[in-house]
Structure formats: C-alpha cells, structure tokens
Predict the structure of M14 family metallopeptidase.
Amino acid sequence: MQIQKHLLLSPAPGTQRELLSLHYGQTGGPKAYIQASLHADELPGMLVAHHLRLKLNALQAAGRISGEIILVPMANPIGLSQYALHMHMGRFEATTGENFNRHYPDQIDTAALAAEPELGSDAARNVQVLRRELKKAVTAAEADTELKSLRRTLMALSCDADIVLDLHCDAQAVMHLYTETPCWPECEALARYLGARVTLLAQDSGDSPFDEACSQVWWKWAKRFEGRFPVPQACLAVTVELRGAADVEHGLAEADAQNIIDFLCHRGLISGAAAPMPAAVGDARPLAGCMPIKAETAGVLTFLRQAGETVKAGDVLAHVICPLSGAVAELKSPVDGLFFARDFVRFASAGMKVAKVAGREALRSGKLLGA
C-alpha cells in the first residue's frame, strides 16, 4: 500500500489542509475508488473505511489485489474541522454555504474535443482515450479556493475509475443507494451484496453531486458520439447511504466492509472465488418517486412508524405537537412505498422536511436532491 498526500489550496497564511489517499494494487487494470464522509459529519463511512483498510492491507499482503483500489478514508478535511457551539457542521462549507456534495466541475466537452481525433470503432480503446483526456482536463482545471481544490483533488483521483463508491449516511435510515439510471444493471450486484432496501435512480438529478459527476460523463459522451463511436457506460458510481448517523458500530462497519470486498471480488479487482451473491432484499425505484414528508407547522416531532416499514398512502407517519396550544398535526405518507429515512431532530420548524418515502412512480421533476 502506498500513501499519497494531496495539499489543498491554503485559505490563509500559516494554514493548509491535506487529503490522504491509500493506493492498493497496480495501475493499468480495473480501478475502484472508495471515499468516506464527504459530508464530514456523516461518520459511519469513516468506520467502514477503517475496516476496509485492514482488509485491503491483508489482501495486498496475500497478493490478491488484481486491479487498482484507491481508498480515501476521510474525504473532507475542511468539513471535519468545522464546529459551531460544540456542534459539528460538516455538510456545508462555512465560507460559501455550498454543500460539499454538489457542484462538481464538468470537463465533458474539454475531454471529448481532445479525445475525438483518436476515437474509432473499438469501444475499449475509446474508453482508454476518454479517460486519459478526462484526467488531464480535471487535473488542469482552475481551482482558486480551498473548496474548489478539494473538488478537483477528489475528481482527479476518481474520474478514471471503473467503480466509484461514495460512503454517506442519512439521519435515521435503512441501507439504501443512489445511482444514475444507466448504472443500475451493474449496481444491482452491489445492492444485493450490501443488503440495500432500495436503490434510487435518476439520470442527472441536478446540481452535479460527486457520484453523478463521475458516471454521467459516459452516457453524455455516448449521446454525443452516437452513430460515430461506441462509448459504453464505463463507470459505476454509487452513493452508499450506510443507514443512520448514529450507526457507527464495529459490527455493522466490519460487515459492510466485507460486503464491499465481496463485491470487488465479484467484479474481479480481488482474486479468489467471490462470495455467493445474496438474494435481493430491496429493489430499484425512481428518485423522482422519493417523496419528502414535510411539517406544515412547528412543534415537537414524534414518529409513529420506524424506518424500514412499508406504508400506504394516508398512513400517519408522525405527529407534530404545538407545545403551547396542544394541537396535533398528522404527517401522512402521500404514496404507497418504503418509509426508508427520517430525521433525528425532534423539534420541527414550519416547512421542514422530516422524512422520506420511496414510491414506485415518478411524481416529481426538476432538482431531485435535498439541500
């Protein structure tokens, strides 16, 4: 294993943060990139990365890593250092207010123009050329703030990977995944190994989150070069939601790490017989069918249903109770679906989104992700 340090742009004299990446195997073959806690206050991924590191160290010592695996055990040193009044504030960058998992730069046109003279009828060769030019464009892109330098560094490490796993968590939730619709055929195996209850699919959900910045270059290039040069969907990029924020336990993390190892073995990046693929415990549904549950009034929030339950339209999921008047507002599911995530905050402000139900029909449009 090799350790690389990547210096971020200094935000002030005397201050500079760095990103650490762990490199296993050899370049030139299939590549997987895994990062933890891009939202720096979502900690289950860091513990999973710890167990992945131990397992990858042992696999490397045994000579079983067939491809290249990059592990970034803590993907956001900026957010990790942000505290206000003893509260960790790791989702939004304090200077700009921007979500750390949004607004990844687009180098699709730059790479396509540079690669086009070398493209031809060989799809595998086209993938090599496009990856090479994409990495050049990402690395050469301007980054005039610390946040932009973090985004550029993460993209430079991941943009040429076959598999990208971005480890996150929700507030209180079951295991679930987000990926782009063209990625689902390859993502289904990952969902089964991880025991995901639902995989939420969209094709460009809006605001360019990290996983989509890695995967959407391929379907956009396929569309651009359609009828001239074959371009496959050469990157499976997935946001892995490791249940809830308090699920930071060795038992869960070790099992999740082993499931990721089993998936990488299934994909050929680790030699040896792959563990049998488990039966599916969930399915894929449109992200546009994921319905937010919103509190219309302020008050004490108490849930009547647990994350992971199947609910019907009209089922009461929670109460919002006004402490002054005693009025009780019912929060109902708008659709039949899986009640897969809920907030851990127990006082709701008016208009606050407090839970999510994954339905089977696409009912929303526009930007599909939350803040």
User: Anything to note?
Assistant: The radius of gyration is 21 Å. The domain at 2-281 is CATH 3.40.630.10 (Aminopeptidase). The chain has two domains: 2-281, 288-358. The chain has a mean pLDDT of 97.
